[in-house]
Amino acid sequence: MESKSYTTGSRDNANRNLEGSKTLMASHFLRALFRIQQTSTTRSSFAGRRRRIRRAAYASMAYSAGTRRAWSRALLRKLRSRARLRFPRRLSRAARPQRGDTDQAQVLRKLVPGGPGMDYCKLLEETADYIRCLTTQVRLMQTVMDSISS
Amino acid sequence: MYRGPPDQLPSCLLDLNWEQTMESTGHFESALSSVDGMGVHKLVGGHHVGVRLHSPPRPNRSMVGHFHQPQQAMGGLPPSGTPMPLTHLDQFSADLGRFSSFDGRNYGHLATRFGLLDTESLSRTAGSQSPQTSRLPIGREIPAQNRLQSDVNNGESMNAREESSVSDPASREVSLGAPAWSSEKKRKAPPKGKAKEVGLANSAMDPPKVAEEDAKRCRSNEKDGNEDDAVKPKVEQTDGSSSNGNGGQKQGRNTAAKSPEPPKDYIHVRARRGQATDSHSLAERVRREKISQRMKLLQDLVPGCSKVTGKAVMLDEIINYVQSLQRQVEFLSMKLATVNPHLDINNLSNLLPKDVHHQTCVYTPPPCVDHSQHLPDGMETQSAVNLLDSTFHQGLSTHQPFLVGFESASSQLGTFWEDDLQNITHMDIGQS
């Protein structure tokens, strides 16, 4: 189950990879933004652009986390499957119904991508990494915002 | 709102902002690992402060009491010498290698990290003195919560068993005479203790993985047969040291009689008093500890949760925080959509900080001020310009070559992911 050391290893790995993952995330997100800006015309709606930017944000988050994390894998799967709605899905990963779950845990499962497929222990671990990545992404977007509108 | 750094100067580099803010979260982790290393050195250096786990008060209390008596007995302990610790380390690793052969578990990592070194030294230098007796009175004082103590003592008893030549035969017999459940704990506790303590220590090493796997292996072995497991150490020891290879995990079907003796070994009683010994509850306990460790991690991540206690409240806070972060992403994406037309220059300028390694980026505002006015939008240009070299001007005319150059520079982007992104964005366009 512990393919990755969760507390200790992840902390040090988070420290070591922080710079690299931030760079990855930033480059990915900025390129996506640039692409969106280039391809958005006067016809494209504001809501459509917003949706695309939001998806670019989550995509860059998942991209920076790579396949190491269950939540990033689930997120990428979701992004890819939404992109290919027309094609038949191969497998729907049915999550095992978790027994003995508090309703808080259920809410958390809905929030964190890939939540339904994990046990509580793994859910907490994935939540921690997800929060870390989310805060990085939010800071990135804030910085971009500030740099644009200063 | 859970905003990060409140003041993000537009003139600052993208890099700097992030590093400052992320380091605040990183400090804790690095501090933990550094403390752990310091703790080990302190022990070996003979300070005898006690095992410096990341809950210092507890081990201090116990370990100080632990070390007193042997210290009085033998003056040969390392309070004197700094060369001692190094030799100790070498000997320890050798002995711990033997440990691993003994029952297949890797105590080396744990021992080096958690001051089993000193206990090792105690048992070895003690020689004829039975460490058992010295431990007995201490065993009464210390509360049952101290798993480290139990683990150390278990390690010590392992030491006693391992070094048959050194330890007292009497002490060996006492440890041999330990009843089924206590010896079962001896074997279960170390890997469990390892898993717990390694988790507690939060040290970034492979040992956590090894410890976890060992704990799992131990647990799975236990589930095969509790009673049989309990008897194993006694049986092996009576046979002699030859059974080292067979011990530990390869739990055969030895159905030797269980010892009906009441627990004489106070250490084990103290460690596990009031707690069930079957594999299910032990596994449950390990699981609960894992969950609590992860909750601690989350507590560090979520701001304003340090004083909150209780799992329910913590979970509420975590859920609120995740929801607020997701809302922030939505909000910021909306804001970015409104200012989208102005993005092009900023993309380029913000990209540059990542490329800093390739260029020498000099922070020279004055000479670059002129160039900033050339920019069509002329916004945040300070930040852009400070990073820019002359290459910016080359790229200014056309954005494409600049991005291409950046792409070639950033080798992190695999083409695989590249394609995925393009698929996503292309599909985006297709959908909307």
From TrEMBL, chain A:
Domain IBH1-like N-terminal: 27-82
Entry superkingdom: Eukaryota
Keywords: Transcription, Transcription regulation
Alphabetical list of InterPro entries matching this protein: IBH1-like, IBH1_N
GO annotation, biological process: regulation of DNA-templated transcription
Coiled coil ranges: none
Pfam families noted in UniProt: IBH1_N
Protein name in the entry: IBH1-like N-terminal domain-containing protein
Organism listed in the record: Ensete ventricosum (Abyssinian banana)
From TrEMBL, chain B:
Any GO molecular function: DNA-binding transcription factor activity
Residues in BHLH domain copies: 275-325
InterPro entries per record: bHLH_dom (IPR011598), bHLH_ZIP_TF (IPR024097), HLH_DNA-bd_sf (IPR036638)
Family annotation (Pfam families): HLH
Compositional bias ranges of the Basic and acidic residues kind: 209-237
Location(s), subcellular: Nucleus
Region (Disordered): 122-264
Protein keywords: Nucleus, Transcription, Transcription regulation
Composition bias, Polar residues: 122-135, 146-157
GO CC, any one term: nucleus
Family as reported in the entry's similarity comment: Belongs to the bHLH protein family.
Protein name per UniProt: BHLH domain-containing protein
